[in-house]
Amino acid sequence: MKQKLQFKEQLYIGMMVFGLFFGAGNLIFPIQMGQEAGADIWLANVGLLTTGIGLPFLGIIAFGISDSGSLMDLGSKIGRKYARILTTVLYLIIGPLFAMPRLASTSFEIGIAPFIDESNYQISLLLFTLFFFVFVWFFSRKPSKVLDYIGKWLTPLFLILLAIIIVLAFVKPMGTISEAKSLSIYQNHSFLEGFKIGYNTLDAIAALAFGTIIIESVKSLGIVKPKYVALEVSKAGLIGIFIMGVIYTLLSLMGAMSLGELPINTNGGITLAQIANHYLGNFGGVLLAAIVLIACVKTSIGLSTSFSTTFTDMYPRFNYLTYVTVSLIIALIIANVGLTRIIAISVPVLMFIYPLAITLILMSLFPKFFENNRIVCLSVTAMTLIASVIDTINVLPETIIRSHAGLLLIISVAERYIPLFTLGLSWVPCALTGFIIGLILKMVINNH
């Protein structure tokens, strides 16, 4: 029985981990942060890495430490019904209802839209997304091949193409980091701003979605015993997350250096396109289109595979290929609604699910602190659920909030009494409160 992967095998899985996580958003966020942070980029980048790679890595090792093969297993410590609901909602969000449509729309907006006439926008979007999801469908048909498709082929190709722009940016920099002007918010809160950007990548949710794929990939290479699976999953996760951290850092510095030639733009996609054009002219636009397309396709393949595998296990009435096909058809329809609308609709849902995902990860990582007691798990989850509802209300459209006095009252009370509410992190003090209440209840019950 195999106890350890060869380094080559660890590298393949590490590359797959990186490829699964690193979509177009991960490409754009650090560039934008670099432009806004300017000379204060170093501390902002530390903040980005803290949450941008720290939370996903914790999510990966949570599966290994808890000996869980799926999100259902991970959530069952709270309750089977809760685990089923959480898993269903999370995979729908990370799959056909938000993440996959956003990936297709983003790759179109950055890679294709600049080359077409505005009058042909809608039909071009439809044709592109149709091609995009047919391609994803083709490579999602066999989940056992995900390691080959993403780890051995698409991720290396993505890194090679991205390296062309990165190397040019550092060999012939547009400006110096020390002379780049910072926005005032970064001058005073650079770490916190970077921390929030890493948090908003939502990769902690992706870690829960991709955990099954990573575990199955390790097992497919001959590692079967749980403790060795856990170790190899952690090693591969560390490789993938390390690559992610390096790319984040380089892109952040590129953004800061670009201020020598470029203005601060409204998003990192515009800046990245301008950088590519600065060094490579028209070819830069073609190269960037290829980079973004590969980034989105590889992540979409991972999402489609993990969604369909999970739903096949949970709802076996339909087979794997049916779930792949139906999920991609739904994603195709939603992608044609437009990127702005997709983001506007999905933000409240993500604010609701994200804290529940993070607290589940933390409870899975540190069960010894509370003897893996179900009462503590329930208490933490209940308090986090309250915070999630309040945070969700806070990001609803203003027209909805202002038309309901009850919603305004909830927000007013939360602003006054819940720490970190204005940062969208009210779940942190609420979860801690739930943990303390759970420990007290555990002691009271044990003493009777």
From TrEMBL:
Keywords: Amino-acid transport, Cell membrane, Membrane, Transmembrane, Transmembrane helix, Transport. It is found in: Cell membrane. It is a multi-pass membrane protein. GO terms for molecular function: L-isoleucine transmembrane transporter activity; L-leucine transmembrane transporter activity; L-valine transmembrane transporter activity. Its main location: membrane. GO terms for biological process: isoleucine transport; L-leucine transport. The chain crosses the membrane at residues 12-29, 41-61, 82-101, 121-139, 151-171, 197-215, 236-259, 279-297, 318-337, 343-363, 375-397, 417-441. GO terms for cellular component: plasma membrane. It comes from the Bacteria. Pfam families: Branch_AA_trans (PF05525). The keyword Hydrolase does not apply. Belongs to the branched chain amino acid transporter family. PANTHER family: BRANCHED-CHAIN AMINO ACID PERMEASE BRNQ, BRANCHED-CHAIN AMINO ACID TRANSPORT SYSTEM 2 CARRIER PROTEIN. Component of the transport system for branched-chain amino acids. This is Branched-chain amino acid transport system carrier protein. It comes from Vagococcus vulneris.
